[in-house]
């Protein structure tokens, strides 16, 4: 299981966000370049289609593949009171012929995207990972070198934390309190709930980028 | 014992009526009545026991009717009391009906009124800490003091949180100078909103990222991490039954793949092998069952649905180059086409004519090109640069169409391509049949035609195709042909061998091949040497080139 929230930030403020995250998390940023292939199962594999995501980490010298299955989010009155999305998630490392395996099983490529950005992995009440990335699409199949951003001016911020069914409320609380620190720059919400940009973002970014003295406007 | 606790609780309740239980009033009444009834029942039972005692001492027969009636009365009273207690005591005690596996282990703990030793120590320590200095006072005042303590702490926490929030707001507020929150104008906000929904839907559901089916062709060079992984034949498109066989057989062979373009070919070769193995007779027979080849007709309907542009056979080189370029990226649709075309091609063997010769020549060229491309890929280069080189050398026409290859060229391209699998399967099946029966000229020439493509295939694909030094192309061809059917699938054909074959192919005519067919037997021996030459195949390849 995992708790997840998403938010958006304008590309011009990404640097300021990085500075803020660096201060909050206390770890070094990790560059990120992930080719994500989303496969959907064919009709021969059951009545309802299932979706599986293959993530290939292109940042290393050797591409590292992972497979990831994301389930539906928790629903109900309790879920509505939590400000994060709690959903089942299974992830595993796989060898590099996983794509072939899934094609052989009957899965078909539904869509693919390339995420380029950075991430912070730290512990603050719970183990959390903040990812700031630009989501790119490929105009031609698998042409990762020619990927263009879907929305050039906006990048995606995602905070995820693994959780179990016993401690997810604690993890959710820890995540919410962390997200409060990012409030001046962006709002984070459950995936699917749009937030818009924060009006104070520009000012907050300016203050973060400045050397700390005086007003910058 | 539970009753005692209950009564104690009740006594405490009476001193602090509203403190303990929320529904205390009701329960208090119940408890008192239960207590009264229990006491009366106790008295009745003890009275009856005394009577029995007296009867026993007097040694007289008891009056059973009286005894039974008294017993029933007592029984009923007890039953009523237990029912009432059950209702009340749920909050206080455990009243198990039976002991089963579920509660057997926990019952002793739950029924005991004494805390576990550790819990008790913990309890005492905490109580000591809490009531430090208050032991002398009365209970009420102790409670009051604790309450005030709690309130104080709560107030302190709240004020601290408030201070932090205010400071945070002030920090960002003062930083921006005049405390005017900048507001986004409506237009900008709407734009951002639109972009945001686009982004979120793309990330979460994949909206806007789906490429329609007809554009789903791998047209450019695959990135590094997919080159080894993605067989050209294994795209996401739906396969026809022929291609379905491909995918079925793929995994079985993919384990042997090495990370290079050879893998692709190997995998495809494995497909073909598997395919061949699945129905060697079928493919073999179909390959020979077809009549006149439609190859000369570029735009004939038999060429398949996806052929949009069919260059004339007089320009095979250009098309071949295009084909080669796309070899790695052709979709299964093309595979299907290729398969069909291959079969066509095989069937056209009997009618060997100028076209086929031309094709053979083209094959050679294609094979060489393919070889180059493979070679480059072995060096982990993208095929695209090579492709461009090839294009230059071959003077490819501009505006190459991805699909639009003529049937003939597709066949040729297929042979050279990684669709070698496709090729090799018919070829292998043909060879298989050939091995089993007397080889005929047609098969040999067909196979020789196939050779260039097969040569491109990585080792394992070729059943018996072992690379090795071959003196004569024809010899090699014949050897290959023989081996395809006969030798174990484990032998691999190094590329160099294929190169030699390619060269030979270009020189060879059908007559040559026919002659070589006769040499099949002797050719077996040298073939077996090829496996040892595996490591050197690259060198040899270069030499050949």
From TrEMBL, chain A:
Keywords: Nucleus, Transcription, Transcription regulation. It is found in: Nucleus. GO terms for cellular component: core mediator complex; mediator complex. It comes from the Eukaryota. One of its GO terms (biological process) is termination of RNA polymerase II transcription. One of its GO terms (molecular function) is transcription coregulator activity. InterPro entries: Mediator_Med18. Belongs to the Mediator complex subunit 18 family. PANTHER family: MEDIATOR OF RNA POLYMERASE II TRANSCRIPTION SUBUNIT 18, MEDIATOR OF RNA POLYMERASE II TRANSCRIPTION, SUBUNIT 18. This is Mediator of RNA polymerase II transcription subunit 18. The lineage of its organism: Eukaryota, Viridiplantae, Streptophyta, Embryophyta, Tracheophyta.
């Amino acid at each position: 299981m995992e708790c997840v929230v998403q938010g958006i930030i304008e590309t011009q403020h990404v640097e300021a966000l990085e500075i803020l995250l660096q201060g909050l998390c206390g770890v070094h940023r990790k560059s990120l370049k992930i080719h994500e292939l989303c496969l959907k199962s064919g009709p021969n594999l059951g009545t309802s289609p299932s979706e599986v995501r293959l993530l290939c980490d292109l940042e290393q010298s050797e591409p590292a593949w992972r497979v990831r299955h994301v389930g539906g989010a928790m629903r109900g009155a309790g879920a509505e009171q939590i400000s994060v999305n709690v959903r089942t998630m299974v992830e595993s490392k796989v060898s590099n012929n996983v794509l072939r395996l899934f094609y052989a099983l009957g899965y078909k490529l539904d869509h693919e995207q390339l995420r380029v950005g950075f991430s912070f992995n730290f512990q603050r009440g719970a183990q959390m990972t903040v990812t700031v990335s630009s989501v790119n699409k490929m105009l031609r199949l698998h042409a990762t070198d020619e990927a263009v951003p879907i929305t050039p001016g906006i990048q995606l911020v995602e905070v995820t934390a693994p959780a179990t069914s016993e401690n997810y409320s604690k993890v959710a609380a820890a995540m919410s309190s962390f997200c409060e620190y990012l409030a001046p720059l962006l709002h984070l919400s459950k995936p699917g709930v749009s937030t818009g940009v924060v009006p104070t973002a520009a000012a907050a970014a300016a203050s973060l980028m400045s050397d700390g003295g005086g007003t910058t406007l | 014992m539970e009753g005692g606790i209950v009564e104690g609780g009740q006594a405490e309740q009476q001193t602090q009526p509203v403190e303990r239980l929320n529904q205390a009033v009701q329960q208090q009444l119940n408890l008192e009545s239960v207590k009264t009834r229990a006491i009366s029942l106790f008295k009745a039972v003890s009275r009856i026991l005394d009577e029995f005692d007296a009867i026993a001492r007097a040694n007289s027969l008891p009056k059973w009717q009286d005894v039974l009636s008294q017993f029933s009365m007592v029984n009923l009273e007890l039953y009523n009391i237990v029912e009432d207690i059950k209702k009340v005591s749920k909050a206080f005690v455990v009243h198990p009906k039976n002991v089963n596996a579920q509660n057997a282990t926990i019952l002793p703990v739950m029924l005991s009124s004494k805390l576990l030793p550790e819990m008790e120590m913990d309890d005492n320590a905490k109580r000591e800490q809490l009531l430090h200095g208050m032991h002398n006072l009365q209970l009420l005042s102790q409670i009051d003091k604790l309450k005030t303590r709690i309130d104080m702490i709560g107030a302190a926490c709240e004020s601290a949180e408030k201070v932090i929030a205010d400071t945070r707001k002030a920090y960002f507020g003062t930083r921006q100078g005049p405390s005017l929150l900048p507001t986004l104008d409506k237009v900008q906000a709407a734009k951002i909103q639109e972009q945001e929904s686009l982004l979120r839907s793309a990330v979460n559901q994949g909206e806007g990222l789906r490429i329609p089916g007809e554009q789903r062709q791998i047209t450019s060079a695959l990135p590094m991490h997919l080159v080894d992984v993605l067989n050209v034949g294994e795209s996401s498109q739906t396969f026809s039954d022929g291609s379905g066989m491909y995918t079925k057989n793929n995994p079985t062979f993919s384990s042997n793949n090495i990370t290079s373009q050879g893998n692709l070919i190997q995998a495809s070769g494995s497909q073909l092998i598997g395919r061949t193995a699945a129905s060697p007779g079928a493919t073999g027979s179909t390959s020979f069952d077809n009549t006149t080849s439609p190859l000369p007709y570029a735009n004939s309907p038999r060429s398949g649905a996806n052929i949009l542009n069919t260059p004339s056979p007089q320009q095979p080189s250009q098309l071949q180059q295009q084909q080669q370029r796309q070899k790695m990226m052709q979709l299964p649709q093309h595979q299907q086409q290729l398969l069909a075309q291959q079969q066509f091609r095989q069937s056209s063997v009997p009618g060997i004519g100028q076209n086929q010769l031309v094709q053979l020549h083209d094959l050679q060229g294609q094979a060489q090109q393919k070889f180059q491309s493979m070679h480059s890929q072995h060096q982990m280069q993208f095929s695209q640069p090579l492709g461009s080189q090839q294009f230059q050398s071959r003077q490819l026409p501009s505006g190459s169409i991805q699909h639009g290859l003529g049937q003939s060229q597709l066949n040729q391209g297929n042979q050279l391509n990684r669709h070698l699998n496709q090729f090799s399967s018919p070829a292998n099946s043909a060879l298989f049949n050939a091995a089993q029966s007397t080889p005929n000229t047609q098969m040999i020439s067909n196979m020789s035609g196939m050779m260039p493509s097969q040569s491109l295939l990585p080792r394992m694909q070729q059943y018996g195709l072992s690379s090795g030094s071959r003196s004569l192309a024809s010899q090699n061809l014949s050897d290959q042909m023989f081996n395809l059917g006969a030798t174990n699938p484990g032998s691999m054909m190094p590329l160099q061998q294929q190169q030699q074959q390619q060269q030979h192919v270009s020189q060879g005519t059908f007559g040559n091949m026919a002659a070589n067919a006769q040499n099949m037997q002797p050719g077996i021996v040298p073939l077996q040497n090829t496996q040892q030459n595996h490591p050197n195949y690259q060198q040899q390849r270069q030499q050949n080139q």
